[in-house]
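Researcher: For the annotation table, I need structure tokens for Glutamine synthetase. Please keep the output clean. Sequence:
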Amino acid sequence: MSESDPVPGGRPGEVERATALSGELSGQGVHGVVLAYVDTAGIARVKTVPTAKLAAAAAWGVGMSPVFDTFLAHDAIVATDVLGSPDGDLRLYPDLDRLTVLAAQPGWAWAPVDRITQEGEPHPACGRTVLRRTVTRAAERHGIAFRAAVEIEWAVGRGDADGDAFVPAVSGPAYGATRQIELSDCAADLLAALAAQGVEVDQLHPEYAAGQFEISVGALDPVAAADRSVLVRQTIRAVARRHGLRVSFAPAVLGQGVGNGGHLHLSAWREGRNLHAGGPGRYGMTADAESFVAGVLDHLPALTALTAPSPASRLRLRPSQWAGVFTAWGRETREAALRVVTGTAGERERASNLEVKPVDLAANPYLALTSVIAAGLDGLASSASLPEEITGDPARYDAAEAAARGVRRLPESLAESVEAFGADDVLRAALGPVLADAVTAVRRGEIDAVDGLDDDGVAAAYRWTY
């Protein structure tokens, strides 16, 4: 077990700390703690403990079956050679550093967990542990740290709509003041709840699709950024429910139109310097930053098995909808899969980053960040060369020009993504054999689950799942 791995029985002082926190939480009227992780299918799964049992959870964990690593989004179970049986148990250990009192769920606190075997070893399919190890290795081998953030888009529906139908809760136009006004009270409560939970919000605004909003939050180290993504979605859902509304983070709420994205923003840093700014390369990138971007670009087809993992993801990944469906990069180019964000002159040393666009919120954020970082580090290690950038919409290129520029359409089906992932030794190694096999099995299970459905049927099947 490495120094970066969680220690069963509590890290030094963790049990004492949990005991003290339990008293503090009780004094704040908190009765229970949500212990949360995200499974292979991208679903946030939870167990809860009474506040008085927090110290026991920190000491010995809370039991949960490893079978959840092979759950599909709709709770059917697939099997691999290692996972998917009714046998065995894991322990969920709360990260007390991330413990948060939930402002929109009075009486509750929340904490992400690491999953540990009963023998005290990290569970090989724990995405949070895999991401932590990837970040640690980047620091040890390349002297690089990362800052990351996940954009969150969601559709707000009326809570009184019939059945599973989606009826937008607002009627105003995209980015319009009317839409903001119509949802003003709910949005204000959301900002207040996130502020109370210590979440730094950069922007909150109406988006393009019917009933759609987007929130951008401050960057953190990748593990904390993934934790924050889960927490923010929990908060959005809770606030909306208190206002009689229903929210969907699904990649596609309807069979046609613009879907919900979950774009990743990532920057690499060495000795306190942002490698995406102040360098001699294009738009201020250093040579290492260019190679990192080139690595992500090279692995994009396989990455989509992790960043756009649902059958509904393909309803979002359509050309000319700013979803980034071509293997291309450009500065502030919203149709390219990789958008180099330089920020405004005067803040570039802080703000410059890489945006990965073919990502949605069906993705497990820990696995998405792990795979993107691993892809970029592969490019950095090989000093990969970044090709010519594109401007405008790559969909305008004919076949010959696209081939000359190295611009390819990303996989148009989940099956193609799974095939690319199976052939990508770098990404599979980053996840490890157990988790890589679970990803493949779950994706194939999702493909089988929607066999015969048209676009509207696929959208309806996942509309309220994520």
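Researcher: And a one-line annotation?
Model: The first strand starts at residue 32 and ends at 38.
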